[in-house]
Amino acid sequence: MLPNRFLFLTCAIPVSLHNIKRMIGEPRQHFERTTSTNLIAHQWAIEDAPHGAIVTASEQTAGVGRRGREWVSTPGKGIYLSIVLRPQKYFLPQQCTLLLAVAACRALEESADVCAQTKWPNDILLQGKKVGGILCSGEWRQDELAFIIAGIGLNINQTTGELPARPIYPATSLRQISGKEHDVEDVLQKVLLEMNALEQENWAAIHDEFQQRCIFLGEVIGLREDNKKYFGIAQRIDEEGFLWLRTADGLRRFVNGEIAE
Ligand code: BT5
User: Which atom of ligand 1 sits closest to the CA of residue 64?
Assistant: First the structure.
């Protein structure tokens, strides 16, 4: 049984994460070089950062992905952005990942003649290659969500040698796909504009756009979770951001995982 507050997201009213209208993107702390924008934003949120505050960096020395993996953050060539969100409604970190993924896809498409796709749970792809990743985490106090830190890394102007080698879904940058250099700050502003625009859209439509953009829905996939591998048909991503997989043993619901092949 879903909490009543879930109705806020499923019906056709704006997502509108916060009661007091605040722009996402203000206030902003920018660092030429820092450890991880997620880490700084988390500390700032514990202190007093309001809903919508952002931390950006030109370079990260300890950028992180899921499970403590490294996020390669080439100086001056990518977007390293973390947003403090204080949702006043029922809103989960994995829903926030979907929201940010849609904003990033739209921003990339506004910046160049590209077609951006998502790969559940947290990847942004151009031509089947990983151009960005999202890391959202929630801070809970008792049963209440105090804040979410929504972090995104987007590769903008990196050349091949500046990105890590990956066996599947190799890394790429917007420049490698579009064939030209881009203004990193300009793309960043587009992501923020889209985040603000999405707050005025309804969750059903945003969730639907994420699914439309997701590369493997309807296909047979292998999914690794906690050292176990599951095979099945990826059926859908539900409104709470879970993936439903039809396996030989029936339907299973996943909140996270690695698409293996
Ligand atoms: C992610 O993790 O994709 C989430 C990355 C989030 C990074 C942002 S940057 C701003 C904010 N501050 C932080 O410290 N983090 C966030 P995951 O799905 O676990 O993918 C990590 C894997 O992607 C690594 O193990 C590499 O294989 C690969 N990888 C690392 N750097 C990459 C890059 N720049 N481009 C493409 N792939 C990369």
Answer: 14
